[in-house]
Amino acid sequence: MLFAPSFPLESMDLLHLQRASLGPDRWTRLFVDPSPQKIATSNKATFDYLRFLGDDETDFEQLHLIPGGRYLLTLTPEILALVDLGPPWSEGTMTPKLLGMTSTLPVCYFKMMSSPIPRQDGRGVRVAAVSDHDEESW
Amino acid sequence: MCVWLPFQITTRNPGESWSVRVYCVLTIVARITPYEIGPLPQDTTIRGLPVLRLATPVGTIQQIWMSSDLVFVTVAPFPGDASTTVLIVYNIVKRQARSWNTGLKQNEVRPFDTPWHLSHLPPIEANCFPQRFHLGNWVLRNPHLDHPRPHPTRFSRFPYRKVPDYPPLGLISF
């Protein structure tokens, strides 16, 4: 089961539709097959987090790639952000875009987040985050 | 931010009696914030949903995962504390939380997460859970997946022994 908004269905050709629809099965087979396999990089994306957030602290607490391979959730102590990596079949270097972000500052710092789950309508995701408080500011 | 619990102390002065209201501070150790993102790809709003605050220093949050409208949290006891891992289930629609003392030490709790492909299961009723998962030797069962069972909607200890519900620990306003 993939996250449908990851795919621009109207503009996809047959090859891309096949690749998307068989993606979960190919992914499962990659790990079920006991024979050693080379795990190759399919796409690369350079994500300039500093430029996006204007912050010196770029330590990620967690990263979650939403099934479909296009959307990435990132968590730093300061910010929960959603990044669009582009269609997963993009050739060469992709250009990630920061789509949205939220923060609990100045009173809290993110500690961890759950894996994302799809909303009931399949058009969005839900995620839960834990934030800790700063002793000085509470 | 603190939580203030009022109680009274009565003091007697010569010729009069009066009471003083005194407040006790409980430290909030963490807050759990569910977020809703989308609808994608047009609208990328990240919207915060009702927050759950953990009000007592029961320990450190060990794991968090979501399924449907529920947030599951395990809270491990502080080192040296005789208490055991607490499981908290927070319903973000009803804004209600329940907790159980699992009887498990920190190293007995298995990692758990909600598989994406199971997260679309029907919304849960009270005391029902969207799928089965193991927490150490504890089992939460999904009545949609695991029936018939002796107690299909109970939070039970494997193999299906009834476990008493413990009062909520440190859960305050949502």
- The portion of residues assigned to helices of chain A is 10-25%
SS-based class of chain B:
mainly beta
Most extensive contact: A-B, 40 and 36 residues
Low-confidence stretches of chain A: none
The topology string of helices and strands of chain A comes to HHEHEEEEEEEE
Overall pLDDT confidence of chain A: 79
Major sheet of chain A, described briefly?
4 strands, antiparallel
Form type of chain A: globular
* Number of distinct beta strands of chain B: 13
Radius of gyration of chain A: 17 Å
Distance between the termini of chain B: 14 Å
Oligomer: heterodimer
Proportion of strand residues of chain A = 25-35%
The strand count of chain A comes to: 9
In spatial order, strands of the major sheet of chain A run 2-3-4-6
**Helical/strand content category of chain A:** alpha+beta
Q: Determine the number of helices of chain B (DSSP H or I, runs of at least 4 residues).
A: 0
Q: What key attributes describe this structure?
A:
heterodimer; A: 138 residues; alpha+beta; 3 helices; globular; B: 174 residues; mainly beta; four-stranded antiparallel β-sheet; 0% helix; disordered N terminus; disordered C terminus
Report on this structure.
The complex is a heterodimer of chains A (138) and B (174). Chain A has 138 residues and is α+β, with helices and mostly antiparallel strands. Helix content of chain A is 17%, strand content 31%. Chain A is built from 3 helices and 9 strands, in the order ααβαββββββββ. In chain A, the strands form 3 sheets. In chain A, strands 2-3-4-6 form a 4-stranded antiparallel β-sheet, with no helix packed on it. Chain A has a 3-stranded antiparallel β-sheet with strand order 7-9-8, with no helix packed on it. A two-stranded parallel sheet of chain A has the order 1-5. In chain A, a hairpin with a 3-residue loop joins strand 3 and strand 4. The radius of gyration of chain A is 17 Å and the shape is globular. Chain A starts with 13 loop residues before the first helix and ends in a 5-residue tail after the last strand. Chain B is built from no helices and 13 strands. With 174 residues, chain B is mainly beta. Chain B has a 4-stranded antiparallel β-sheet with strand order 6-7-8-9, with no helix packed on it. A 4-stranded antiparallel β-sheet of chain B has the order 10-11-12-13, with no helix packed on it. Helix content of chain B is 0%, strand content 44%. The N terminus and C terminus of chain B are likely disordered. In chain B, a hairpin with a 2-residue loop joins strand 1 and strand 2. Chains A and B meet through strand 4, strand 6, strand 7, strand 8 and strand 9 of A and strand 3 and strand 6 of B.
